[in-house]
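dumping this here before i forget
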Amino acid sequence: MSDVAGAGKQLGPQGSEHSLRQLTPLLVWAVVFCDIGTSVYYVPGILYERVGDVAPFFVWIGLAGFILLAMKYVEICWRTPDGGGVVSIANKAFTPMVGAIGGLLISIGYFLTSAISSVSGIHYMASVWPILDEHVVAMAAATLILLAIINTIGIRESATLALVMAVSAFVVNLAVSAWVLLRMGEVETETIRQTVALAEGLDRQTFLVGFSTAWLAFSGLESISQLSPAMRTPLAKTAGKGMKLVVITMLVTSPVLTLLAVALLPAELKLLNSERFISEIGGLYGGWPMKLAVVVTGSALLLLAANTAIIGCYHVFLSLAEKGFMPSTIAARNRYFGTPQIAILVATLVPILVIWVAGGNMQTLAGLYAFGLLGAFLLSSAGLDVLRWRDAQRGLKFWLGVFTTLMVLVAWLVTLRIEGDATLYGTILVGLGLVLAVGTRRKWFADWLYNMPLLARIFPRRVERAEEALEHAEQLEILSLTQAESVAQLYPSSTMIAMRTANPGLISEAIAREKGRGGRTLYVLYVEERTGLFVRDWSWQPTAEGIDALRSAVQAAEAEGLTLIPVWTVSYNAVEGILRAAEALGVTAIMIGATQRSAIYHLLRGHVLAGLTKRLPPGIRLLIYG
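structure:
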């Protein structure tokens, strides 16, 4: 085996990039719309409480800034193919510390996305089940706790699920707009005309407040920059087409629904139910069925946005930890599921604390949301301007980019001025984060922690065990799938074993099968499953679980005089990884052990046996041991 796997020490993205880049432009649209599309459910009410009936005007004004910023985020995608968004772009344009500040700002944005989405989702459900109005804070917190548990188990953030939810919500929103427009009479038409005319008498203070708040209508735009590692290549083409779909769908939903809701809902209804304008306008003109359709699709989309925010937030934490700005402890993985449980816990507890402190008040949440969101927008936009300047770009695109940055800057400065409490809380959060970042970077906390008597005794023993494990791991030569494919013709086999844990019985059965067919080689595959859409494949290496499973197979095969080739790959879906490997290696049979996982695990992570049964190509048999 050593002559085959001598090149197998360096495992990189070459064997996994195809697997992880599963997002087409349509799926990119779906994932981003599941985030940005949720703003239509709560922003009209927030704007109405701040500027009154002139609120729709500011959504239309915000569209100009949204389109300009969207163009810049497409470029950010291909400039940062490994993802990272504002962290990566600010790091490239300025300094690592500025990148860390960007990470802290976008973390606040993610915290508030989770908070405001969960609270808004409960408000929408309460429009059908009023009893929930009395328990908004508790229900929102319970929802986030449930999402934390699900993410710790390791839910596979399905782009297909996002597509179904995005299409459903988009269709329902279009249906609401169309139905209201069809049922409008002369009175409603005149009311809308008068609402539009209100923009003529705006004073400067109202304009600045409305302009800065309207950016919330397009929050979620930053999520596309986190999807770069999962997009099909070429990135510029995929991101560009996906963003065009986002812009089009936002153009035909957010401004229209805001105008109809603000203009046509009775004043008393708007005052009492500002958190759920869309379901109220749907119910007013389409009755209970349309109201229910809005509640079901809207609350589901809001729940998905909260989950995406948790995933995005903990990936920012991991990125900051990799760069030395957060303790490595935050990246600690769950021993059973391989998920970053500490990062997930922090990404969940902070939004719950924010909801509790704010008492579930949407205006308070919106203020803090704008602080983090606009700050991250500003660093992303300004960072791209700097990179364009360095590339000697001085044309129209550059100056439009500078204009966009100035628009965001004005909106952020206004937010800092009018959102006193939000500015204070946001500054405290960023300040604490910077202390943690600088202290971690300069080893302040490490020196203090590891000088504590307890850790001073434990740490050397852990280092010794880690070094021993590394020595054992180095004794096993593992091939990436690309490397294994390159030697498949020299070492042909009809059988491939897909393993999750050590399984001596499965190995014995596979050896007997291959020997019975006159074969002398056996492939054993371990798929490192990467849950979520915010993937960064190049940094993945085999886990201890994978190494142990492959080592047990090698030892069993050597005892039987058979050449066993251990192969490792990474995928967003274990089934996809297994089938891709079977095709690449040219085997005619896949052998797996009978699952011992629970039904809940299979619900969240997917059932490998069921998936293989459905997708197995002709000419390849599936053999199940046990």
